[in-house]
């Protein structure tokens, strides 16, 4: 009888442990934070010539997560499913030029904004397109389910555009622009600035931008504890100069918001 009772107690203890683990969610339990990224989003997060994931957000995230006492794991994801990846627990954070919008606030928790950005229109340097109205009858590309789509859809010029083509990432959109399959691309200013610095005299920007915006880090709804830990680390990085140092490395100046 005693032996039978011991067996039942052991089973109960194991069951309790399994339930506890399943309820904890995320990867915090093994001291790892999985960070969902778009690995074709230079200079925020992308692969270098050695296929290593690098970028401003990669350095910024690594420094913050390590300051929190965790180990970062960068997980490339399909950017169209980023919120689903977060809500399902497959990733713990969305961190790669993730624009704060009212619609996204309904799905995720956000840190305070850490970087300013804008949605701009890029064309080839030789193009005769100089202003938004010149997009009338043109073919325009953008990254699927990005804030570029929101910015374009909210501008009156959308009714004049011939076709809006969506791409899995900005690299593909810019490639089609260079080959002439697109007339223009709506894109994050920080991204196109990077490519313009690498491919001089290839692109130009219209003077009119579509929408100013700010980047933040996305945390799963209900995980306020993780959000508070992360925000504390980001604030400390602003105070101790870590954020400024990382920004200087990637942008040549301190662009991080306080």
CATH third-level topology of the largest domain:
D-Maltodextrin-Binding Protein, domain 2
For the record, the count of structural domains works out to: 2
Strand content: 15-25%
Q: Could you name the ranges where pLDDT drops below 50 across 5 or more consecutive residues? A: 4-25
Question: Nearest-angstrom radius of gyration?
Answer: 22 Å
Main structural class: alpha/beta
Count of alpha and pi helical runs: 9
> In CATH's first tier, which class of the largest domain applies?
Alpha Beta
- Helix content range of the residues, please? 25-40%
Instruction: Give the ordered list of helices and strands.
Output: HEEEEHEHEHEEEHEHEHEEEHH
Number of beta strands: 14
The CATH superfamily of the largest domain is Periplasmic binding protein-like II
The overall pLDDT, averaged over residues, is 90
Shape: globular
Q: What's the CATH architecture name of the largest domain?
A: 3-Layer(aba) Sandwich
Ends apart, CA distance between termini:
66 Å
- Largest beta-sheet details: 6 strands, mixed
